[in-house]
Design a protein that fits this description.
The chain has 94 residues and is of the alpha+beta class. It is 36% helix and 26% strand.
């Protein structure tokens, strides 16, 4: 499944390693160093005032204008939908 992270960006939910609230990046030197390193390694855009959540995937770092709570809800809804049982009668759709 894919998660819409804002700004017309979609990422595979299985590729997400971590979602970090932007305020914790500012208060943690380790998170700050990780983001700095990632920006040096690839052409990742800088954090803007609109950035609320930083999403680290296998291949890249994304900056989302959506809150981490919104992204968690979106990803948990997707996971819930993936695990629903299908009780439809196959004869109904023939």
């Amino acid at each position: 499944m894919f998660i819409h992270v804002g700004d017309d960006q979609f990422i595979k939910s299985e590729d997400v390693i971590v979602m970090i609230d932007q305020q914790y990046v500012e208060s943690s030197s380790i998170n700050g160093e990780m983001i700095e390193y990632q920006q040096e390694q690839e052409s990742t855009p800088n954090i803007t005032e609109e950035t609320k959540t930083i999403i680290v995937t296998k291949d890249s770092v994304y900056y989302s204008p959506l809150s981490i709570q919104t992204l968690k809800k979106r990803s948990s809804i997707r996971m819930m939908l993936d695990h629903l049982d299908d009780y439809t009668d196959s004869d109904t759709f023939d």
